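Lab meeting notes turned into a lecture example. A postdoc, R.K., suggested we walk through two folding results consecutively so the class can see how the record format repeats. The first protein's sequence and structure tokens come next.
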Amino acid sequence: MVDGPDGAGKTTLVRRLAIRLRDAGREVLEVRQPGGTALAEVAREAALNPAMHASPLAELFLMLAARADQVAKVIQPALDRGEVVVSDRYDLSTEAYQIAGRGLSRERVMGANELATDGLQPDLTIVLDLPAELGLGRQALAGKEPDRIERESLEWHERIAAVFREASGPSMVHIDATASVEEVERAAWKVVETHLKETSGAG
């Protein structure tokens, strides 16, 4: 799983890692969250559309509905087939945006997330660390129309970026996303390659 603040380059890295994995002979599925099923795409649109004015709780439930549907219909079946799933965002984003950003209860949110995912956790999480101002600047430079969440204040996004920067865990690796796309890709691939060798028992 690849995660990080807005503008960190997650989508680009997911695509590049998927190419490398296929070149290495792996069956790969690329997914993004929220999204990936008809229901999840509707939930994504409702959550991110500025005209909808979703409340914090409504935003959470839309995100979790999208995740639950994608896990059940797309991700778990792919894992059962032995495929490598590379996801653009997962539950770390929920901790950042809905807990730190919206101020919702950690205990309740993570309990709901556990239910939505049936306990499915990433084997490896790559976190792209990037200052919020730089990420938002990248998006503006690319001409991206900001969605409802991306329109939040810089202070709000700085709080989100701090959650990603401070996140830790046994399967979590941080990469400096201020580097070039190529440098980020090389660093991430080294992490993925090592992880695959360790989990497959290959030399």
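The second example is placed directly after the first for contrast:
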Amino acid sequence: MKIYLFTLPLILIVALYAGPSYADDNQNVDPLEGLNRKTYAFNTALDDYIVRPIAKGYKAIAPDPLEQGIRNMFSNLGEIGNVVNNTLQGKIGEAGYSSARFLINSSFGVIGLFDVAQRAGLEAHDDEDFGQTLAAWGVEDGPFLMLPFMGPSSLRDAPSRFFDSLVDPVSAIDHVSTRNSLIGADLVTFRADLLALDAVISGDKYLFMRDIYLQRREYLEADGMIEDDFGDLDEY
């Protein structure tokens, strides 16, 4: 599960997948570039002054086993969305695979703190979301959108996040402080994982982020059946 509050300028670097540049096709891909850049600047300011400093502090004081355990727990919760979206896409085998991972890690892995399923040979696969489900149903992604707080998206994927929230167990928690604490923990843990990659961005940061996002979505919608020149960055 990934929480998209306070989008991070580097949130898309988790998958630096090779692909075509979209810079020469701005009118088709990014007709709202002017507005998107302003939103990106707003999100970047939030990251610079709030999210990144908190993530640095967390990284400095949290023991590595604790970080990994929290990361595993949220990944395990994300398997619920994987089950639902794989089923909707007709990928019954993948839905069963995600179900097995969730059941094993939720029981033997102590609510997912330990990835026992991976040790048993069931490695984590890429997350599935309702935007990918709509893509599988033939819905075009539409123009690129930069959303306040929530970050990179598209005309198709932006409203799809509402559906994803319906199958997110954290969103279903009635106790407000508990729910917000879990959302914050997920955000900080995810941002902390990206601190080492801050130096990767070069040139026009907005274009870099946009192209990486679009290439990443293309990769996910094709279930990884495109060339990946950068290798697996899951270790981050």
